[in-house]
Amino acid sequence: MNTPLACSALSLSLAFAPSTLGQEEPPHEATTTAEEIPPHERPPIGVWLARAAPYATKPLRPNVLYFRDGYTHVQANIDAAGDNILGDAANEPSIAVDPTAPNRMVIGWRQFDTISSNFRQAGWAYSHDGGRTWAFTGVIEPGIFRSDPVLEVDTDGTFYYNSLAVDPEYRCDIFRSYDGGVSWDEGTFAFGADKQWFVIDRTDSEGRNHIYQDWSSGGSTGSRKFNRSTDRGETYEEPLELPLQAFWGQLDVDLDGTLYLFGRGRNYSTFNLNRSSNAKFADQTPVFEWSTQVDLGGSLGGWVGGSPNPGGLLGQVNIAVDRSDGPTAGNVYVLASVDPPGDDPLEVMFARSEDGGVTWTEPMRVNDDPLDAYNWQWFGTLAVAPNGRIDVIWNDTRNTGDSEFSQLFYASSTDGGDTWSTNEAISDVFNSVIGWPDQNKIGDYYDMTSDLVGAHLAWSNTFNGEQDVYYTRIGDYDCNGNGIPDTEDIATLDSDDCNFNGIPDECELAAGTAIDLNGDGVLDQCQRCVGDVNGDDTTSQSDLGLLLATYDVDAGDPAYNGDADLDADGDVDQADLAILLADYECGL
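^ that's the sequence the OP posted. Answer follows.
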């Protein structure tokens, strides 16, 4: 159906203010006229006309955990007590996972403190237990209008939050967190504008930890809509113009640091790829030596009346590169929810290149409902695991026959997209047209990242009768990144779980959620008394005496007492004394 485009378990949350229809948008540079800034991104300057949103004013306060067929959906925009926040809205989430400690992750989203306003802020939540629980401490820069959150993480586990601001002009600031998402720095101006996206190179190439960004419209840089940082976000270079425009798209890198950028062209039925082999070299100006159009079998959908998301996109354009060492290594994949020829309004379509983006397969259909069925498969989202598995999720109306009621669906491929697993509904039905925060949409995208066993997904739904952000783990957990489900590691005793919480102990230590003062690899909470030198299951004056008697003695010295070397580092010193004193009177 080629529809005319109409212009128009636990967690956390935050944001607020008023909005407009029929008034002028804030001024922006004339250079942006080639691509108008979508109305949904304009900051509030008045009061919107009333519109009907059934049940939008009747949010619930249920449990923030939802279950279906083995999948647990954990709400992220919750209050300090872990409850749903009544009357707010949260959408357009993005997620990043710390590669050094995968139990540490952050979700960012557009936070509306009230659905009566279009004003939003940069909401975020962090989890240090693999997404089982989430914590909220406030929005980034309270009181500042922010939108279009995109999150990334570098090789050392520093998180980056890319956020669109509109005052004094459309621009992006990128904030960094060095403590697992608990707090953020003051942010760095990164140019950018509406519908930006960015990627951090985590390969071992020359471009390791380089940051690449592109955007769609607005701002003061005109047609120059790409830039990078080669110093981990300390500074961002002057933008460059791309050979082919790439609106509402994404970026990725292959194992040797070659950069791929993919997005929508000047019209909704064209999709453009740009490739740069030298962007990884900090001392060279990036050159995009190859650009081409890719056929995805239809037109990108947005602002379609009667659709599941009438006031926004029906999904962004996705790209992901296979960085595995298997038979599909180096493949470049693109995916989007598109409007194909015929009566079917939207399909999830996929294409593959095996030669660096030069040639592409014919578009392939991921959703397996009958051809020409009048179903909406929207918000198609793509990620590729380190072993080459392709994960795809989307919202789907096939089981309801109603554009307002969708379920989250999932499919995967282990052969480069030639075949796909049977589509699986992994959530209950939700109504996508309730809880609108004074704009007729539930955001423009979801976000997902994959590991060897499964995938981490950040998405929005209305289980509570309002728009909320949720985390869903697809597949078993793999917090130590060994490619074996955590449940199997624990069952085979390859990983300890001394506190029986289902999380391997080594993952809790890596994430900083458990303490091992003596460094023996056993959680202190599972040891009777870590300061017990004499073996009587207590930490007392006698233990202190034994430690002081061998204080400042190294291994190899006849006076060395290995039992008093509580941190097992080869000497009895101040660190051991600190461990003992912290544990003093244990067992007494």
